[in-house]
Design a protein that fits this description.
By secondary structure, the chain is α+β, with helices and mostly antiparallel strands. It has a domain at about 10-85: HIT family, subunit A, CATH 3.30.428. The protein is built from 2 helices and 3 strands. The longest helix is centred in the N-terminal third of the chain and has 20 residues, at about 25-45. The model has no long low-confidence stretch (mean pLDDT about 95).
């Protein structure tokens, strides 16, 4: 359980192996963590905890809000008016053209494992 929960039922899924960032996480362990997270999310929805939705959240890097540099995944039960969420205003919106989207996708694709 998160010791500073957003809402009741806020769970952390933490691998036993230490890595600071998601990019350092072994794919098999990552898949296992996600499988565990799916089961926990289903259990949270079935429980008596107030839950109208669920966020899976990872803060990867200091600029993304990571405070503990051991990779972990948050499972956060959500409900209308709970006050949590990412906020995007007009200054935050990146509005790329289709060509820009394709260029960024190509840049990323170069580094995907084949």
């Amino acid at each position: 359980m998160d010791h500073r929960p957003v809402n009741a039922g806020h769970v952390l899924v933490i691998p036993r192996v230490h890595v600071a960032y998601i990019s350092e996480l072994d794919e098999g362990i990552g898949a296992h963590l996600f499988k565990i997270s799916l089961g926990i999310a289903k259990a949270v929805r079935k429980s008596g905890i107030r839950c109208e939705g669920i966020n899976l959240f990872v803060a990867d890097g200091e600029i993304a809000g990571q405070e503990i540099f051991h990779f972990h995944l948050h499972i956060i039960p959500r409900f209308k008016g709970d006050g949590f969420g990412l906020r995007f205003g007009p200054k935050n919106l990146f509005k790329p053209s289709r060509m820009e989207l394709d260029e960024v996708a190509d840049d990323i694709r170069k580094f995907l494992k084949k």
